[in-house]
Design a protein that fits this description.
Structural class: mainly beta
Order of helices and strands: EEEHEEHEEHEEEEEEEEEE
CATH architecture: 2-Layer Sandwich
Distance between the termini: 15 Å
Strand order of the largest sheet: 4-7-1-8
Largest sheet: 4 strands, antiparallel
Number of strands: 17
CATH topology: Alpha-Beta Plaits
Number of domains: 1
Length: 249
Amino acid sequence: MIVFDLSGYFAHFRKHFSTTSSLSYTFPPRTTLCGIVAGILGYNRDEYYEVFSSENCRIGLQVMKPVRRLLQVVNYLMTDGESISFFKRTFRWLDKPAQIRLELITADERIPSEVHYRIFFHHEDADLMRSLEDRMLSRKFYYPPSLGTANNLATIRYIDNVEAEFFHPSGDIYIATVIPLSVVKSIEPEKGLRIHREELVPADFFKDRTLRRIESYIYEEAGKPIKVRIDGVAFKSEVDGVEVVGTFM
């Protein structure tokens, strides 16, 4: 299993159900992570959804530090000719840029700092895994990775290719990654943890880019393990000398 870190000063992972105000998830959805990996390997848009489906590819994500939401207003200018004609007839505001509220995700610290996510990636195709590892080690990305929108460029740091044990836990375990609520049977909150919930997060696409699966997740804001009982697959691995137990998005 390949482990790598994803970081950057700002992120925006648009909630698919938001309309005039562009709201953001606090961490990249599984579909976004598939897009980042596909971009590194050189896949074009709309040709990788089946390659990185949940049946072929397993992805875990750990939030490494707390984040906060920052609301900004940005100017958008319509440039598509057909759309301009439609909006001029309908809304009459195309003479000036449109001001749209945009929710950004940034690190919750007093000094300038980056958001930080740790990704655990496993694919059934061994050749794809080798190609991804080679590109990360050489830093030869086909398309530059970003945290959601293209202007929020991301830094990728390769950590390791680790041995991972996949198993079905029979009792309570401590999980450090984001946990799909669909597999959670019980939660035991402990003192000192701040557990968050993120709802309606895209997890899989059909090949025509329509949503195939949506999940809701719980996670601890700084990536601390949560004691839960789950009905699903978990993984156990050692990263930088520390044992990590997680589950897949």
